[in-house]
Inverse folding.
C-alpha cells in the first residue's frame, strides 16, 4: 500500500481540519472554552431555553456527552439549567450573561481565525469555495443517509 499523497484532496482536508482545530483550541482555551462548547453556546444564543435532549439532537451528540459539557459550563457560570415549569421531567438550558460575553468573544475569535484562513483570497474566491464546500457537505450528508 502506498502512502497518501500529501496534496491529495483527502490529505488536504485532513490537514485543514487539524490546523483549524488547533487554531481554535489554542485561542479558546485562553478563556476556558473547550471543544464542543462554542457550538453549544451559539446554539443557545440563537434559541435559548432548549431542553438537553433538543441540544443533543441539534449538536448531533449523545445526551450523556451534552450532560458532561453542561456540567462543566454550569460550574464556570456560562449556562444554567432549570426544570421546565410545565413538565418536571424536562431540564431546560439557558445561557447566562457571562455565557453571552464568552459567546461574543468566541465569535470574534472565529472571525479572526477565518480572516487568517482566507488571507490573500478575493471575495470571489471565497464565494466559489463556499459553493464547493456546501456541495461537498451535502454530498457527504447524502452518502450517510444512503448508508442508513
Amino acid at each position: 500500500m502506498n502512502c497518501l499523497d500529501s496534496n491529495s484532496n483527502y490529505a488536504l482536508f485532513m490537514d485543514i481540519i487539524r490546523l483549524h482545530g488547533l487554531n481554535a483550541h489554542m485561542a479558546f482555551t485562553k478563556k476556558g472554552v473547550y471543544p464542543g462548547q462554542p457550538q453549544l453556546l451559539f446554539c443557545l444564543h440563537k434559541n435559548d431555553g432548549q431542553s438537553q435532549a433538543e441540544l443533543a439532537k441539534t449538536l448531533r451528540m449523545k445526551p450523556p456527552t451534552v450532560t458532561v459539557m453542561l456540567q462543566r459550563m454550569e460550574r464556570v457560570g456560562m449556562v444554567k439549567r432549570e426544570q421546565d415549569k410545565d413538565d418536571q421531567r424536562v431540564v431546560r438550558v439557558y445561557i447566562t450573561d457571562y455565557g453571552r460575553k464568552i459567546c461574543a468573544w468566541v465569535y470574534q475569535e472565529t472571525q479572526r481565525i477565518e480572516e487568517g484562513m482566507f488571507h490573500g483570497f478575493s471575495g470571489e474566491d471565497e464565494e466559489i469555495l463556499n459553493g464547493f464546500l456546501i456541495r461537498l457537505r451535502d454530498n457527504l450528508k447524502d452518502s450517510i443517509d444512503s448508508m442508513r
Summary: The chain has a mean pLDDT of 93. The radius of gyration is 18 Å. Helices lie at 9-28, 37-46, 52-59, 63-75, 97-117, 123-147. DSSP finds six helices and three strands in the chain.
